[in-house]
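Hey, can you fold this one?
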Amino acid sequence: MRIRLLAALAGLAAGLVAPSAAQADDDITPYIIGGGTVSSAPWAAAVLSNGSFTCSGTIISANYVLTARHCISGTMSVRVGSVNRTSGGVTRTVASTSTRYDLALMRLSSSVSTSYMPLSSSYPPVGSTNSIYGWGMTCYSGCSASTVLKTATVRVTSTNQTDAYGGRAIGSTRINGNAWRGDSGGPQVYNGAQVGVASTADGSSRQYYGSVAYNRAWITSVAGV
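Sure. Predicted structure:
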């Protein structure tokens, strides 16, 4: 059963119940679920709704942050350039939002100068090892979103899956970690470029990331990159 990767924080919408087999991940050293922490990520964007952390994202140009459509609710803002979602970097309010399938482009109220996340125009090879990033929950249940940005490696199983809104998605399975609630909107990266946007997961091994290549022309038309 797939669920949206919503942050399991008070006041936010709850996800659906995932398979009980994932309960075994409670015992894993807590990063993403598995994986490790990140020391520097100038392109990272913590996504806030009404002032509270809700999702992960990436800044792709001076004025645009890429995240998941299902993260958009209420008054949106972002913290850019810090691996700590609660401090550091710079903060901006979101002036407007454009969406397509489970991708969202948030136009910032003023520009941010940093190192932006490169975007891929092609799909990662099936069988390739990719990296995922996010501030999501560090265990299957009973814990909060991570304060420090995490990363894990996954193996691509398909480039023809479906995201939460019917768009094309990249399917992967865990190598040393997997995405969970709060990782929504975060990037999947192959060869240094973002290939996906976190959309749905089962909380145990599988995750589905909205395809950047599939939506590349739309991203360019909105954000100019």
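The chain has one helix and 14 strands. Let me know if you want another pass with a different chain boundary.
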